[in-house]
Design a protein that fits this description.
Length: about 325
């Protein structure tokens, strides 16, 4: 990272101030091309300039000089200090992928600053285009809004597992939204995805013992297999790929469907060829009315409404289910 910054300075893209080394965005032709913003936009977006020695308010730090008590301290030609926010990505990709590589991914929130700055640094250093294609994933929402700790709507995969969902059903849910679109997480949506996932997996895994297909079915399976791969090649269109899996699953049951699913799983990672576990605690086997009561009780507990929570526990008890609470959720067990 130090060598990277030194070279940028030698080439006239970096300059020193009292608190660090900065990248001179005005010296880089094409700053803002990824997010299609110009220097004036960058100016409007820049935070109030604390460092008046900066040539342009949107110039960003390549290297920061560390104050005595700062947690990060490394020897550098500019005294003790630490790297800027963006330089590590440019340096790592150069080291491990070289000065040209095909695909750089990230979240959409990285487009305007982080990736813009990576491009500026890397292209200024190399003197040519470094990344051929930028791909950015959209945000995930919860119940149509932002996921945030203060709203109490942050869930981890472990939370979903504790509530009886299979992580593969969650993956199936995620793959049903294209990466360029916002993914709206709701428990209704997840329940629907879990039901669909279990049905698809049930059909396909049952094909392991099915007879070999006739010629016609065999060629239709081959066609569907190619259609799944084509969908993925087309800008990772997984929603379409899953649709093509469904079309395959509706063909006459045959061993070829099972074999195709095993091979396609290298792309899908859904284990559709595995038989469903015969587990009483599997969420999919819990009747909807029981699930609904358990959900109501979970909400009551979150609201510290213990009376309602106890009454709903008694209802579940009467229906033959025990509920085990954990920090982040609950588990339903058939008695
Ligand atoms: Zn990065």
């Amino acid at each position: 990272m130090i060598a990277f910054v030194e070279t940028l300075c030698e080439k006239g893209y970096g300059y020193e101030t009292d608190d660090g080394i900065y990248f001179d965005i005005s010296a880089f032709d094409g700053y803002g091309k990824l997010s299609r913003c110009n220097l004036d936009d960058a100016l409007a977006g820049a935070r109030v300039a604390v460092n008046t020695q900066k040539r342009h308010p949107a110039d960003f730090a390549l290297w920061k000089k560390a104050e005595k008590n700062h947690i990060m301290q490394w020897q550098s030609p500019w005294g003790m200090g630490y790297p800027g926010w963006h330089i590590e990505c440019s340096t790592m990709s150069k080291k491990f992928l070289g000065d040209r590589f095909d695909i750089h991914t990230g979240g959409v929130d990285h487009i305007p600053i982080h990736h813009e700055n990576e491009i500026a640094q890397s292209e200024a250093l190399e003197g040519h285009k470094v990344v051929n294609v930028w791909m950015h994933g959209e945000f995930m929402l919860v119940d149509g809004g932002k996921m945030s700790k203060s709203l109490g709507n942050v869930y981890t995969v472990d939370d979903l597992i504790a509530r009886g969902y299979s992580p593969l059903a969650f993956r199936y849910f995620c793959l049903n939204t294209h990466y360029r679109n916002k993914l709206n997480f709701t428990f209704d949506g997840l329940n629907g995805a879990a039901t669909a996932y279990n049905r698809l997996r049930g059909i396909i895994s049952a094909c392991s013992t099915a007879p070999k297909a006739d010629d016609d079915t065999q060629s239709r399976v081959e066609k569907q297999k190619a259609a799944v791969v084509d969908a993925v090649y087309d800008d990772l269109n997984f929603p379409l790929a899953l649709g093509e899996m469904w079309t395959m699953a509706k063909l006459p049951a045959c061993r070829e469907i099972y074999d195709a699913a095993v091979e396609l799983d290298k792309i899908l990672g859904l284990e559709l060829y595995e038989p469903l576990p015969a587990d009483d605690n599997d969420r999919s086997t819990v009747p909807d009315d029981v699930k609904a009561i358990a959900e109501k009780r979970f909400v009551a507990r979150q609201n510290k409404d213990w009376a309602t929570s106890d009454a709903l526990r008694a209802e579940l008890d009467a229906l033959g289910y025990t509920v085990l609470d954990s920090k982040t959720g609950y588990e339903l067990k058939k008695k």
